[in-house]
């Protein structure tokens, strides 16, 4: 069947924005109920997409239900370049979710979205299934699409609404690692300190002596602006490290803890001496012990004893290494001894009065697998010298020669960069991530309205399951 380019575009744009479509099993209907397109053309276009794996089709009584797959999202980008509408559609649909059909359509769309991590999808699928059965049961009593939208929400729909709110609260918008771009290193440090590693994440966790917040920390020049903001928050009384336990990423082998260039000295000079963290809650690898392998095993065991790391704040080297996981490191590696690459030795010589011979050749480091086990990872990247590594990690595939790229496998990874670090990224990539951040603000505004509406209704919380 020949479908005009204009009609096909209307169909594809609607599918791309909504993520799901419904069509009546009526080949003779002159128009689709929602689109100004013959119903038969909608069915045929979506059957074609189904045959290619871009759409999944479900049959129910007199209706076809179509759900866009992750592969379909990639395909339809050729037709609808403004990818940000994937997120914009959620805020738009929440505003109009007054009936059960539109709410279920929103939830089906979230289930199909590649932006939603798999662990969250499993619970969502179950709730969608329950509410979807009610859609089928009640569709016989409500004839038109508009009538079905305005039927009052049922109990299962309220459960579904609560789950949607939970998804929004959990900051699920990801496609591989998220990317936030700021003008300069100072602004990057502010974002990393305020949004993730400080007042928001730690205070939200509400740590106690029995359940401390476990924080992974880096060294080097990149995190220094972040540490300065953390210190200011502590001095302003907006943050406390009294119930925070820290684990540093790495330490040189052969340097005493009191050496001016040891990472133990660096951390106390740049952060720990200025905040209210008890020294007993600071954990840094000791590269001067006799049993280095035993030191690494004890470090991993201690992390596990605390229940794992809640948030790992990191930086990278010019070759894309995270911690001291040099190019070629196993992506499943744990805390271990690592021989440093010559490029890393050259880069770190500036901390040793530019004396290459004074730079240690080995280090103890947490592994890539250790970092990926963290519940959330935030990496700070600044400067044009690291722009190639950033482009490989964001635009390339997962590659053990660029260990930062392993964050593509982490559901809660965020990379915060300055403009200089984006020098090797495609212009389209930079625009895409900036648009995602702008539209995310719309989603959060819609979420705030949803919460306000729930409070005004007198139930005390949004999407209550009580």
Helices and strands in order:
Elements: H1 5-18, E1 20-24, H2 39-51, E2 55-60, E3 63-68, H3 70-76, H4 85-96, H5 100-112, H6 118-139, H7 145-150, H8 155-169, E4 178-182, H9 185-197, H10 201-205, E5 213-217, H11 224-235, E6 244-248, E7 250-252, H12 263-270, E8 282-283, H13 292-305, E9 311-315, E10 336-339, H14 342-348, E11 362-365, H15 368-372, E12 376-381, H16 387-395, E13 413-418, H17 427-456
Parallel strand pairs: 4-13, 5-6, 5-9, 6-8, 9-12, 12-13
Antiparallel strand pairs: 1-3, 2-3, 7-11, 10-11
Compact summary:
By secondary structure, the protein is an alpha/beta fold.
If you had to describe this structure to a student in words, what would you say it looks like?
With 466 residues, the protein is α/β, with parallel strands linked by helices. The chain has two domains: 5-169, Orthogonal Bundle (Arc Repressor Mutant, subunit A); 178-441, Rossmann fold (3-Layer(aba) Sandwich), CATH 3.40.50. It is built from 17 helices and 13 strands. The chain has helices spanning 5-18, 39-51, 70-76, 85-96, 100-112, 118-139, 145-150, 155-169, 185-197, 201-205, 224-235, 263-270, 292-305, 342-348, 368-372, 387-395, 427-456; strands at 20-24, 55-60, 63-68, 178-182, 213-217, 244-248, 250-252, 282-283, 311-315, 336-339, 362-365, 376-381, 413-418. The strands form three sheets. Strands 4-13-12-9-5-6-8 form a seven-stranded parallel sheet. A three-stranded antiparallel sheet has the order 1-3-2. Strands 7-11-10 form a three-stranded antiparallel sheet. Strand 5, helix 11 and strand 6 form a beta-alpha-beta unit. Helix 4 (85-96) packs antiparallel against helix 5 (100-112) and helix 4 runs parallel beside helix 17 (427-456). The radius of gyration is 26 Å and the shape is elongated. The two termini are 51 Å apart. Mean pLDDT is 78; it is low at 81-100, 113-121, 148-158, 167-176 and 455-466.
């Amino acid at each position: 069947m020949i479908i005009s380019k204009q009609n096909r575009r209307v169909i594809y744009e609607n599918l791309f924005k909504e993520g799901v479509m419904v069509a009546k099993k009526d080949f003779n209907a002159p128009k689709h109920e929602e689109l100004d397109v013959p119903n038969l053309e909608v069915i045929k276009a979506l059957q074609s997409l189904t045959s290619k794996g871009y759409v999944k089709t479900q049959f129910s009584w007199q209706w076809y239900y179509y759900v866009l797959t992750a592969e379909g999202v990639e395909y339809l980008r050729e037709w609808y370049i403004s990818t940000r509408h994937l997120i914009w559609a959620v805020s738009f649909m929440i505003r109009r979710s007054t009936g059960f059909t539109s709410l279920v359509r929103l939830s089906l769309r979230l289930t199909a979205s590649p932006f939603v991590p798999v662990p969250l999808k499993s619970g969502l699928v179950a709730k969608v299934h329950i509410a979807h059965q009610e859609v089928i049961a009640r569709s016989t009593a409500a004839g038109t699409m508009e009538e079905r939208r305005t039927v009052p929400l049922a109990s299962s729909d309220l459960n579904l609404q609560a789950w949607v709110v939970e998804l929004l609260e959990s900051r699920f918008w990801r496609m591989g690692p998220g990317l936030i771009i700021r003008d300069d290193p100072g602004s990057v440090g502010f974002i990393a300190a305020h949004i993730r590693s400080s007042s928001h994440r730690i205070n939200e966790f509400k740590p106690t002596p029995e359940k401390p917040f476990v924080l992974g920390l880096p060294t080097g020049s990149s995190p220094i602006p972040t540490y300065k903001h953390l210190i200011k928050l502590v001095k302003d009384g907006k943050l406390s490290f009294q119930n925070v336990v820290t684990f540093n990423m790495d330490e040189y082998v052969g340097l005493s803890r009191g050496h001016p260039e040891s990472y133990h000295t660096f951390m106390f000079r740049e952060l720990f001496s200025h905040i209210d963290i008890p020294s007993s809650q600071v954990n840094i690898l000791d590269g001067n012990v006799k049993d280095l392998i035993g030191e690494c095993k004890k470090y991993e065991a201690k992390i596990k004893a605390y229940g794992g790391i809640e948030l790992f704040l990191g930086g990278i080297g010019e070759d894309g290494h995270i911690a001291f996981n040099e190019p070629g490191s196993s992506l499943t590696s744990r805390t271990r001894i690592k021989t440093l690459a010559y490029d890393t030795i050259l880069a770190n010589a500036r901390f040793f009065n530019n004396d290459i011979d004074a730079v240690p050749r080995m280090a103890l480091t947490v592994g890539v697998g250790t970092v990926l086990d963290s519940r959330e990872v935030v990496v700070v990247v600044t400067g044009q010298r690291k722009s190639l590594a950033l482009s490989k990690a964001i635009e390339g595939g997962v590659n053990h020669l660029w260990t930062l790229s392993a964050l593509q496998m982490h559901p809660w990874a965020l990379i915060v960069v300055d403009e200089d670090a984006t020098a090797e990224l495609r212009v389209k990539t930079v625009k895409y991530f900036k648009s995602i951040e702008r539209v995310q603000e719309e989603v959060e505004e819609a979420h705030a309205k949803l919460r306000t509406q729930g409070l005004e209704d007198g139930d005390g919380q949004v999407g209550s399951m009580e």
